[in-house]
């Protein structure tokens, strides 16, 4: 007796039947083992190794760049007391340079032109403060009394429905707050001392910044030739071009924000004056300076205006002032900014908010003020490097000229030479 193995046809089957049965078994086995994943080719392993190697190199490069950024911020933080007056001086110099240049073009000596413009600026600033101070001193006491009456109204409101708080509960809450303040008196005194120290440091930085402004206005035109002379011949034109671009960017930012701030201050101040809200001039000045901190500054200035209107005139007038502030801000953001900025260094609103948030968290109000100009300068440098990598000749200015460094051992100067149309077209 012969044994029949599994999957083998019986002996009595003919050859044709055996062939058909064998093919059917193979087909069944193949269908059971097939998967939709493609079979691995012979080159997959080397490609995976190359990809892992590239990822490792990219990771190492990223870590090195991150470490360099951390070290850079650490060094800048340690030198912040030196950098802050320089940055403030540059921003003030961008405001005063057009008038200084006008005087210098009319044959005023550089030192006399710089001193005259700087003293006029200080006198104007002190005059504004002197004009605001009496009105603030006269009306703050009245506002304090009205605020006290407002707190009493709030206490009466809390005593009624729907809160129905008893007078003793409110007094207990007030006493608890007072006890908490008294218990932290030492900490509060420490904070006050820190605040006084910060004010003192700010005044010192301001005085130093004004001294630097004088030298920037007096010797500013010599800066680009000197800086370009410290580099090689190929890098000199890029250093000169970036210096002019960053200076024009700072000047453009100050001009734009000053114009926007003036328009905001005028219309919001007009609304406050129409509805007889106190402190019109101080609130208008606050709105003007708040424009130099985009988005956040306008929000804070508008909140102060609404709060004072609420304390002095009541809820209805405060709501109207809120509508005026909101309308002015919408006109500024959707109409004025696109028209005024034109083809300038437009930054997305999200970038502005993130920059202001980061600057305020790192350096307080000064950081919030400097965040947007620094972000704009970073954007200028990034676009310059990108255009240089794309062979677009970013060193060519909008008027078709290129800054070139010329000179010898006796001195260095920067000249603006006209560029051939082909090179200017390549830049675009």
UniProtKB/TrEMBL annotation:
The annotated region (Disordered) lies at 1-46, 392-428
One of its Pfam families is: AI-2E_transport
Q: Where in the cell is it found?
A: Cell membrane
* Record keywords, A-Z: Cell membrane, Membrane, Transmembrane, Transmembrane helix, Transport
Cellular compartments per GO CC? plasma membrane
Q: Does the record's keyword annotation contain RNA-binding? A: no
Report whether Transport shows up as a keyword of the record: yes
Q: Which residues cross the membrane?
A: 54-76, 82-99, 111-133, 188-217, 258-275, 281-307, 314-331, 351-382
- Look up the record and give one Gene Ontology term from the biological process aspect: transmembrane transport
Q: Note the topology in the membrane.
A: Multi-pass membrane protein
Composition bias of kind Basic and acidic residues appears in: 392-401, 415-428
Q: Which family does it belong to?
A: Belongs to the autoinducer-2 exporter (AI-2E) (TC 2.A.86) family.
Q: What is this protein called?
A: Predicted PurR-regulated permease PerM
Q: What is the lineage of its organism?
A: Bacteria, Bacillati, Actinomycetota, Actinomycetes, Geodermatophilales
């Amino acid at each position: 007796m012969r044994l029949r193995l599994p999957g083998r046809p019986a002996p009595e089957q003919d050859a044709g039947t055996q062939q058909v049965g064998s093919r059917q078994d193979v087909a069944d086995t193949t269908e059971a083992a097939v998967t939709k994943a493609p079979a691995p080719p012979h080159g997959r392993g080397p490609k995976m190794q190359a990809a892992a190697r590239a990822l490792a190199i990219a990771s190492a490069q990223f870590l090195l760049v991150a470490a360099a950024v951390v070290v850079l911020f650490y060094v800048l933080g340690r030198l912040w007391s030196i950098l802050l007056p320089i940055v403030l001086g540059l921003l003030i110099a961008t405001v005063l340079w057009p008038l200084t240049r006008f005087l210098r073009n009319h044959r005023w000596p550089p030192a006399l032109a710089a001193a005259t413009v700087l003293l006029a600026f200080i006198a104007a600033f002190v005059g504004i403060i002197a004009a605001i101070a009496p009105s603030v001193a006269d009306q703050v006491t009245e506002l304090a009394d009205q605020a006290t009456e407002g707190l009493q109204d709030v206490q009466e409101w809390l005593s009624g429905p729907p809160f129905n708080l008893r007078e003793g509960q409110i007094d207990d809450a007030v006493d608890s707050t007072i006890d908490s303040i008294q218990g932290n008196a030492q900490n509060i005194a420490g904070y006050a001392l820190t605040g006084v120290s910060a004010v003192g440091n700010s005044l010192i930085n301001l005085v130093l910044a004004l001294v630097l402004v004088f030298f920037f206005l007096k010797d500013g035109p010599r800066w680009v030739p000197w800086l370009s002379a410290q580099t090689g011949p190929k890098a000199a034109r890029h250093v000169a071009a970036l210096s002019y671009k960053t200076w024009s960017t700072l000047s453009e930012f100050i001009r734009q924000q000053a114009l926007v701030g003036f328009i905001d201050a005028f219309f919001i101040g007009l609304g406050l004056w129409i509805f007889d809200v106190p402190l019109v001039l101080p609130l208008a000045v606050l709105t003007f300076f708040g424009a130099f901190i985009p988005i956040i500054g306008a929000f804070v200035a508008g909140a102060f205006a609404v709060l004072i209107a609420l304390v002095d005139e009541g809820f209805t007038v405060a709501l109207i002032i809120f509508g005026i502030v909101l309308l002015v801000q919408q006109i500024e953001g959707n109409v004025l900014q696109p028209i005024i900025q034109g083809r300038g260094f437009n930054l997305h609103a999200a970038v502005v908010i993130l920059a202001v948030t980061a600057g305020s968290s790192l350096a307080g109000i000064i950081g919030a003020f400097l965040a947007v100009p620094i972000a704009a300068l970073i954007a200028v440098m990034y676009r310059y490097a990108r255009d240089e990598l794309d062979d677009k000749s970013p060193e060519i200015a909008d008027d078709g000229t290129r800054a070139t460094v010329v000179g010898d051992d006796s001195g260095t100067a920067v000249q603006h030479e006209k560029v051939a149309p082909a090179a200017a077209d390549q830049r675009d």
